[in-house]
Amino acid sequence: MADLDIYKSQGFGNLSGFGRAPALLIVDFTNGFNDPAQFGGGNIADAIARTAGLLSAARAALLPIVFTRVVYANDGSDHGVFCLKAPALRGLTESALSSQIVPELEPAPGEHVIRKTQPSAFFGTSLAGWLVGKGADTIIVTGCTTSGCVRASVIDAMSYNFRVIVASDGVGDRAMGPHEANLFDIGQKYADLLTCEEIEAHLNALQPAIA
Amino acid sequence: MADLDIYKSQGFGNLSGFGRAPALLIVDFTNGFNDPAQFGGGNIADAIARTAGLLSAARAALLPIVFTRVVYANDGSDHGVFCLKAPALRGLTESALSSQIVPELEPAPGEHVIRKTQPSAFFGTSLAGWLVGKGADTIIVTGCTTSGCVRASVIDAMSYNFRVIVASDGVGDRAMGPHEANLFDIGQKYADLLTCEEIEAHLNALQPAIA
Amino acid sequence: MADLDIYKSQGFGNLSGFGRAPALLIVDFTNGFNDPAQFGGGNIADAIARTAGLLSAARAALLPIVFTRVVYANDGSDHGVFCLKAPALRGLTESALSSQIVPELEPAPGEHVIRKTQPSAFFGTSLAGWLVGKGADTIIVTGCTTSGCVRASVIDAMSYNFRVIVASDGVGDRAMGPHEANLFDIGQKYADLLTCEEIEAHLNALQPAIA
Amino acid sequence: MADLDIYKSQGFGNLSGFGRAPALLIVDFTNGFNDPAQFGGGNIADAIARTAGLLSAARAALLPIVFTRVVYANDGSDHGVFCLKAPALRGLTESALSSQIVPELEPAPGEHVIRKTQPSAFFGTSLAGWLVGKGADTIIVTGCTTSGCVRASVIDAMSYNFRVIVASDGVGDRAMGPHEANLFDIGQKYADLLTCEEIEAHLNALQPAIA
Lengths: 211, 211, 211, 211
Known about the structure:
globular, 211 residues, six-stranded parallel β-sheet, Rossmann fold, homotetramer, alpha/beta
């Protein structure tokens, strides 16, 4: 039996849908992850371009918007096991160019930027409480990498019982095998997969109700 | 460039190694996940058989041992988004045969059994504190599924800065594509992959020091 | 300067108010905490009586309702530091009479009961995610003890950015000094203090809007 | 019966003791909390002076050392319910003088500084994982305020099953009533109370073993 058929026969892959109040989470779209010589490559540049359009739609629809950056201390005081597995992460410090959000997606005032040291945007951060404070019940996720910090953030978002929508062309990875494999897992178990265009259509339809 | 070469060139895939004080975490090896008609199939039965040997070695080495089960309330009061994506999970109630740990791995008195409703063994559970209380610095992980609750638990274990060793033949999945893809991600970024036999050799070498 | 004046001069003690969607949290009103020979005494019996009225109002207003119980494993596998400070807690096992919710407040089907081993109702439990899943933005808190599990739960509820309303006569403690001191801290920094009657009036006013 | 007698008769107030590997946590000793015109007053200046000695002993004994600061975003993007209860907190931004650690306790390179927005040093921060990474099993706590961020941090530290030692003269509060009341609660239920001098004696005795 093909992998997809097994999941179908066991009842996975249903939709959880949009709630009433979405927020937008943009994971780790920083210069270092858009540079194939550092942590980038694959479809990440494309995913950033698609996210730019989605970000505009989210701003027009007045969604709460939050970005993440990986930031480690200059003196190494917060290096842990993740830095043993991938030592190059240590270069992502507060002022390093590599840890700044890419210019195409520069955060506007009032948009929240979360610093993190672990894969999930929720782990050891204020994100869950920030979303509660904004009254969000649905998290739209873009960012990179699909097989890393996006996947980890999606699991936590769903575990907190937010409905999760992953922008299938707004998430990117340095290598396409893991990208595809993780989209499969995410779609079967944790979140709904929609294109940026489909999500924008949903947000555009929300606009009158909010304005 | 092949996926693995990309990861290698960017500095992933290093070893984090064993610490001084390992614990054993066995994720969701319950009857329902060992039944191909429910959530099982693939290499799960094999992984359970391998885990039986590892469990014996862990007991001989006096490791702290913890199991997880997925358990939802009979009245549905704790159903959330995960149950929308995979509605069959709702049948995993306290007394359901499907949510009991498989007989081959029956927990002994003093071994901890954690009930959970989300993928990660850490999310919404006492696991992190339990491991701190036991003085563990390393988590050996077996269980199922590799692409689901094992993967999620491994990310959280590493995020808490435990060193993580995943038993590559002690974790199982209903479908082999996701199994392999997730072992790749785990080995590159979150944990070291060793066979049960290799882990047992490490534990056997520890024994004299502890006893 | 009196304590209250210091807090006033530094800008503490403001109201955070009700949000749009309250939930009711009833902390540890179990037989053992209503028995002066175990963990009870003081004004706990009175607080239970007041909570019965509030619970009726919450049910009539269709609020999400959640109870907590302290439950430790029969075999002691989850005893930790809290059990060193207060060893009598070890008797609160799944089937012990002392850890059952008091008959006056028996949970109805669909009302969620959370087992916990630490002071806060949020620590190592699914409570935060359960509240997100219910769309709650405000937590009304009753239970015991004011200086223990209520205080700890209130801090976490506020830290997750839920607005918190503590029922000043629906929370109880074995000793009145700590009860009063903790109500002071809570009111100055974490939550609004209202009587059960005041909260019931608020809930009664909500009813038409929901029904 | 006096409050203390009630606690004694119910089995509270036992010691949890030191473990093998202590770390030092210094909570919110920043300029704003050492200024009676802002959040300071009471015995906070004294507690800072005592902590300076303890910090020296901790450095000599090579303990992992971590400080916390309250830091909110300049643009208010992370203000939540705590800022409704105490609006003056909003002034504690990254570069504000009030949120810098007091000169007497300036962190040395490699000592970890955690930014937080909630009372507990653990909530929404990397502290738990940082302590696991350091192999700590015991947390020595000083800082301010006793009735606020110290109390909240102590509860979480114990909930994670770290043994907790609170420096009774190294913690301070703007008002002495809440200071004393919270020391009572902490000593009865969550941590052992020792003076800085007693803790220093313990650390000095550790030194030869570590060096």
